[in-house]
Amino acid sequence: MNPSTPPANLYEGNGQLSVATPIPGAHAQHTDVIVTPTKIEVVARCKYPQARQHYHRHEWQVGSWELAVDLPRPVDPTGARATLNLGVLVVMVPVVESVAEAARYRPAVGLAAGDDEA
Questions:
Q1: Which pTM was predicted?
Q2: 3-state secondary structure of 42
Q3: Residue 28 backbone dihedrals phi, psi, to 5 degrees
Q4: Cα–Cα distance measured from residue 35 to residue 63, given in angstroms and rounded to the nearest whole number
Q5: CATH number of domain containing 26
């Protein structure tokens, strides 16, 4: 199954930029988040392919996701945090005044309370 691009909300508050995106079927241990000073990228690999299901109606997918979000302001990738709760990934990164050096950082995707790792 080819990865799909999920919708995303990008918002700013409390000195940070946040990206929230629904990624149904994704598990933290199969999700990579890459943060640069100007972009957030998400790659979630499908753990259980749904190709063999006999759907009568199929309007959304469970599986592989890819997303790249250009940020409107520079951020500090080393301060990034990511959580996956009930199928919604939220990545939060502190805003900075300028990009001193282009660094890439991969925050660990944490599970919020109540999510299981199955």
A1: 0.80
A2: strand
A3: -55, -40
A4: 22
A5: 2.60.40.790
Longest CA span, the chain: 53
Tell me, what DSSP letter sits at residue 44?
E
Does some domain include residue 116? no
d(CA 23, CA 79): 23
Spatial separation of the C-alpha atoms in residues 6 and 12, rounded to whole Å: 20
Is the pLDDT score of 99 beyond 80?
no
Q: In what order do the strands lie in the sheet with 16-22?
A: 9-13, 16-22, 88-94, 81-85, 109-111
Percent of the chain residues topping a pLDDT of 70? 78
Domain tally, the chain = 1
Domain of 72, in residue numbers: 9-49+60-110
- Residues 42-89: tens digit of each pLDDT: 999 876 666 677 888 878 777 789 999 999 999 998 899 999 999 999
